Amino acid sequence: MNLKRRQLLQALGAAAAASYAGAPAFAQNTPLRVGIIAPKAGIAGTIGECGLRGTEYAVARINAAGGIAGRKVELIVEEETNPKDSIERLRKLVLQDKVDCVQGIVSSGVSLAMGAVAEEMKALTIFWDGTTQDGVKETMVNPRYVFKSTDNECEAVMGSLLAVKHWKGKFKTVAGINPDYSYGRNNFAAFQALLKKFGVEHTVVADQWPKVGTTDLTSHVAALKAAKPDLVFSSLLFADLPIFMRTAHGAGLMDGGTKFVFPAAGFQHTALKKSFTPEGMIFGHNTLYFDYDKGTPQQKEFVKQYYDKYKDYPNWEADRAYFAMEVYKAGVEAAYKAKNAWPGKEDVINAIEGVKVQSLGGPGHMRKDHIAEQTFYQGITTHKNNYDFPTLGTVDIMYSDQLQKPTGMDFWQWIETATIKL
Predict the structure, then answer these.
(1) What pLDDT does residue 27 have?
(2) Going by C-beta distance under 8 Å and a sequence separation of 6 or more, which residues neighbour residue 318?
(3) Which pTM does this prediction carry?
(4) pLDDT digits (tens, 9 = 90+) for 168-177
(5) Residue 24: pLDDT band by 50, 70, 90 thresholds?
(6) What structural domains does the chain harbor?
(7) Is the dihedral of CA 42, 47, 48, 50 positive or negative?
């Protein structure tokens, strides 16, 4: 009996040891599961679709090269809608699907609500375009598990700086048409604050605030035309933007030499046809300008593959999604190298803080406060191209450390005190 008992214990011990030894190898043979939450319909549907395509491109390249630290990536896609339902999908991805990382989110309203839940669940989450800002105030100053995009105001700051750079002294009256929520209101306020900072005297003669998703902008355009502004600033960015352009063109708003600053127009660039979208606009393509002649070979490859497959040209959400995946990849691989073993979630988070990557639109990094820094592209539109929509005749490039507040600083105070290069 004693001999048999010893043999049984030895056998069980050997089996346990084999199981333990084999566990890491087994783990590395299983795919990394990344959950994606992105809009598929509605006013942000085309933006979410472009972001998902950027993610799929990134994953295809990663998997073709052997995966992340030897593990292939598997995507599980859920839809972004309202905050409540999107948070339930986050819970499903984390608790049921057991994903290793969650990425996505276009709406700042969703990310503001989701950030706190992801933090509570200890779910590693990297937002594409989402922040946790309430207006311009950061609500999650020291997150552990949530990584955020550049601040909402970056593109408005750059568009405002270009207006000063190119048109200072060439306009006196200003009008705005911006979406009626914090993004639009903060952007128009930032524009005015920057004009003041650089000594541009101006008078606001009209400010229009259409609800998000408004499809009849006739009255708003009429009010702008009646005000006869020298310059119109607008942070419209969804499907309402092409509607505005058609309506404004039909009403003759663009006939009197009015200048236009549209820092987020790149989300709709291929829908803004030359027939109703003027040359000479300040136009934001932000973290991805598809037609940049000095773009990296990787960017040019992506644009070509994107057009060949979808017969369209990508906007900057593709870059935001690609950036999120590259940040995750770089973090996992750096943690794996440092540990010489498969890293845990906390190891990966530590490695992501401060990590530098090359995204589709250029260099970027993740600050230690979990806010992204990326390369931005804006410029003045031209019709001198081979497309049926305007592109940039002049291209200005800025890194976002010149466009967003430093860690812990108030946005309005930063605008007043920062040394910003035009």
Answers:
(1) 56
(2) 50, 51, 53, 54, 57, 288, 302, 306, 360
(3) 0.92
(4) 999 999 999 9
(5) very low
(6) 30-150+296-373 (3.40.50.2300), 154-286+376-417 (3.40.50.2300)
(7) positive
